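ugh ok so i messed up the first submission bc i forgot one of the chains. this is the corrected input, ALL of the components this time, i swear. 607 residues overall. if the numbers dont match what u have on ur side tell me asap before i send this to the collaborators (the ones from the other lab, u know who)
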Amino acid sequence: MPSEIDEGYQIKLGVFEGPLDLLLFLIKKKKIDIQDIPIAVITREYLEYLSSRERINLDREAEFLLMAALLIYIKSQILLPREQPAALEGDPRKELVDHLVDYQRIKAAVGVLREREEEQSQIWRRAALTAPLPEQDLDLIEVSLFDLAESFFSMMKRRQGENLKVIRGKELSMGDKMKEIMTILKERDFLDFLDYLGSHDSLEEALLAFFCLLELIKARLVVAIQEQLFHSIKVWLRKDAPPVTKGKE
Amino acid sequence: MMDKLQQTLEALIFISVEPLTPAKMAEVLPDVPPEEIARALQDLLAAYENSERAIRIIPSAGGYVFSTKPEFDPPVRKLLQIERRKKLSGQALEALSAVAYHQPVTQAEIAAIRAVDSSYALHTLLENKLIKIVGRKEAPGRPLLYRTTEKFLAYFGLNAIEDLPSAEELKKLMQEENA
Amino acid sequence: MMDKLQQTLEALIFISVEPLTPAKMAEVLPDVPPEEIARALQDLLAAYENSERAIRIIPSAGGYVFSTKPEFDPPVRKLLQIERRKKLSGQALEALSAVAYHQPVTQAEIAAIRAVDSSYALHTLLENKLIKIVGRKEAPGRPLLYRTTEKFLAYFGLNAIEDLPSAEELKKLMQEENA
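and heres the new structure output, hopefully the right one now
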């Protein structure tokens, strides 16, 4: 529940970012010129706020207390009788005032940044690109047949461990399977090697798909690429591959 | 009427993951004089600004990048299943402005400006890559120095650090607020 | 003339990481009849097809996705190659930090630190002149030893390798998280 402060200011819990923030609030509330702080008044107010801190939730107590000590010190300096006129010694408030002015500027900047953050939070950029990378990007690692085979067999081993039930039935031909792969590549730009093989119902069919892929690589119709080591292997259509069956374009 | 150069810049800005800088444009198009690129770029930006498209090109961190217009924030968030974008805490934002206006700056200096220990805030900012370590100060203890990053610029939609309000402008803002 | 629905679809297709399917569109816009979405989509595609833009929307994998027009392939490729060259991957950066903090160091030692084979990352770093070979280790197989270069220091704004944040300092920064 927000507490009502005498001059109508609403204090929300935990609203002060630090002692300077509180000090600026008090100065503004009293409509005081920051260059000419009546230190006795401000110190009293500051201490009053600290003593009511169960309402203000000061989780950085030490920092607030440190400021209280500084205020009391400045107050004592002003009250102390001096042999020379104070003007020569310099106003003990000066350092605090300079600090407050600088901090006030930071607060103004916070306001600006907060506004911009709000504005920017409503516009969106793409996180990543979906466009396939050009084939002759030489930084990519073209994987060897050995890599392909290894990842395939390790996957099949895993799948056998899953106690897979093998569904028999469909008569499968290598020609049909190769056509299927090419059609998918035409439509989708690329295939995730393991996902694709894994999508087959039976081990036989997956094996067939694997050998078809090897054939297509050998025939230089497709290319298998790993963008980074230990990442999944993707299969792309070669740009110079002849069209299969009925291309739409 | 779009010419080939404008279209090429459009394709390049579109495909670039990071904001595309004029330097990169020049690198891709070494045969085109930079003034010509700059002019085509201005025309392209104007064309988008005047179009009815939901996307546009904005300057960001010294380059140019495509973004959606703000009015499409709700459906985009729904698509991405993002309830609300996370905002920086007041503490973090304060420490960040202190870095922005005093960089390069040490942790102790930031703490002094804010009269508050700022290590947690700095940690958050480092983790979010809004600030970075840029070396050490030639002072006792050789403390680490911090600066804002490119991501800082992008996060706040700034083109360069000079786009932040100057000390003078901040003073004006403060006066308005107090008036 | 573009209506709000067309624009919304445009923003959604733009921002979607995967090709945006009609099902997803319907999910985001539950109050709009699917026929209406389909019609707006056709209009949007036609508008792009007939425009002078270098980008367009194409059907892909059962959805729709933005792509640059094929005639801009050469500059786009050139840019992608430049970007790949310039950006250090996370892998490379990790290997680089391993070299920086343990130099002089062998490939096997880096691999042990990262628990990952690092030959490709090291190759990238060598090519970018961020690390160099400084000799061989007096050990079985006499493996090559790597160190960071002057360019590495310049890249990260360091005067000397001693200016790298120490393990102590990093630990302190990271601990704040738990505070």
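quick check: The CA atoms of residues 136 and 159 of chain A lie 34 Å apart. that seems consistent at least. Residues 94-120 of chain A form the longest helix (27 residues).
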